[in-house]
Amino acid sequence: MAEAVLPTPDVPLGVAPAPAGLADLAEAARAVLPVEVWDFIDGGSGAETTLAANRRALDRVAVLPRVLRGVHAARTEARLLGATHAMPVAVAPMAYQRLVHSEGEPALAAAAGAAGVPYVASTLSSVPIEQIAAAGGAVWFQLYWLRDRGLVADLLDRAHAAGCAALAVTVDVPILGRRLRDVRNAFAIPPHVTAANLPAGRDDLAHAAAPGVSAVAAHTGEVFAPAVSWADLDWLRGRTALPLVVKGILDPRDAELAVAAGADAVVVSNHGGRQLDGAPASASALPGVVAAVAGRCEVLLDSGVRGGVDVLRGLALGAHGVLVGRPMLWALAAGGRAGAEAALALLADEFRDALTLAGCADPAAARELRTMTVE
After folding, report:
1. Binding residues for FMN, per the UniProt record (predicted)?
2. Which of 101, 308, 311, 336 is most open to solvent, judged by the fewest CB atoms within 10 Å of its CB?
C-alpha cells in the first residue's frame, strides 16, 4: 500500500504552495484567464519563431562563475538612469492590464514601487497615467508615436505633470505585427477595458470584433503613426528634460543613431516576439548593441526574461539592467497586487542567489563576468 503523503507545516491542506519560480506563474494565470486573453498576452507574431528564439537564446548563454571571491550574500542594488533601485530590473510596458485583473496598472505599479524597481506605464494603459503615477514608486512613461502630434504633446505634458521619472519611446511599431492567435480568435478588447490615456472614442476600433480580424491591430493602425523618423526623435528630445529611453533597438547602427539623438538608454528588444517574426532574439543582438554604444548610454535587455538567472545573463552580456514583462502579467492575473509583490520578491531572491553563486558582490561585478554560448 502506498505511504500517505502529509502536508508540510507551512503548506496547509487546500492551499496551493507558493511558486518555486516565476515560470510557475504561467499556468496559474492560464487557469484564470479566458482563452482569448491568454492568447493575447502569451502569443507572438507570425509563426512565433522570434518568440521562441528569445527563450532559446537566453538558455544558450552560459555564465562563467568566479570563485573564492569572498561573497557571502550579494547586494542587488543598481543604478538605472541616474537613480538607485533595489535591483537592475524594470517592469516592462504592457497594454490593457485590466484585461488580466480588475486592479490593473495601479496594482502592478504599487508592487513595483514596494519592490524598489521602476514601473513603465504604457500609452495603452487601461488606467490614466495620473492614477498609475500616484500608486507609488518610480514610474517611467512609455510613448507610442501617434498620428495626432497634438495628442503626443499632450501625453508628454501629462507624464511630466504626473511626476514620471523617465520617458521611454517605443520605435518598433510602425504597424502592429500580425499576431495570428488574435486573428483566429477575432480578439477585441472588452468594453469595460479602455485605452484610458486617449480621448474618449479614440479606441472604438479596439472593441469592434469581426471574424478574422484583430481589433487591436485595427485600432493601432488607425491611431499609430507609421512613418516615424529620427527627426521625430529629435523633436521629442527637445520637448523633454527627462531621461530618454529608446525601446526596440536590434541593429547596432540604430543604437548609434539613438545615442546621437540624445538617448540616455536604449532597450534591446524585439517586442517580446510580437512584431517582426524572424527578427533575432534580443539576447543575441545585445552584445552588438553594447559594443556600438561603447558606454555612451545605458543598455537594457527586454524580451524573454523569466527569472533571476536571466537578469544575471543580461548583465554578463553587457546590459545595465533588464525589463521583465509577461511574468508580471501572470502574477497580476493570478493574485493582483499581492501576487505581483510576491513575484518581484521571488525575482529578487533568485537574482541575489545567482549573483552569489557567480561570485559577484553586486550587479556591477556581474557585468565583468564572461559567457559562453552552449548548444
Report:
1. 93-95, 122, 142, 170, 247, 269, 302-306, 325-326
2. 336
What does residue 213 show for φ and ψ, rounded to 5 degrees?
-130, 135
Query: What domains, with CATH codes, occur in the chain?
Result: 24-370 (3.20.20.70)
Number of residues in the chain: 375
pLDDT digits (tens, 9 = 90+) for 139-178: 999 999 999 999 999 999 999 999 999 999 999 999 999 9
Q: In this structure, are strands 83-85 and 78-80 parallel, antiparallel, or unpaired?
A: antiparallel
pLDDT mean over 7-14: 34
Instruction: Provide the annotated binding site for glyoxylate.
Output: 144, 179, 271, 274
Residue ranges for the known binding site are 93-95, 122, 142, 144, 170, 179, 247, 269, 271, 274, 302-306, 325-326
Q: Are 29 and 330 in contact (CB under 8 A)?
A: yes
Strands 298-301 and 321-324: parallel
How far apart CA 90 and CA 82 sit, in angstroms, is 14
User: Is residue 271 among the annotated active site residues?
Assistant: yes
The catalytically annotated residue of 85, 101, 219, 271 is 271
Annotated binding site for FMN: 93-95, 122, 142, 170, 247, 269, 302-306, 325-326
For the cut 80, the answer to whether the pLDDT of residue 9 exceeds it is no
For residue range 282-297, list pLDDT tens digits in order.
Answer: 999 999 999 999 999 9
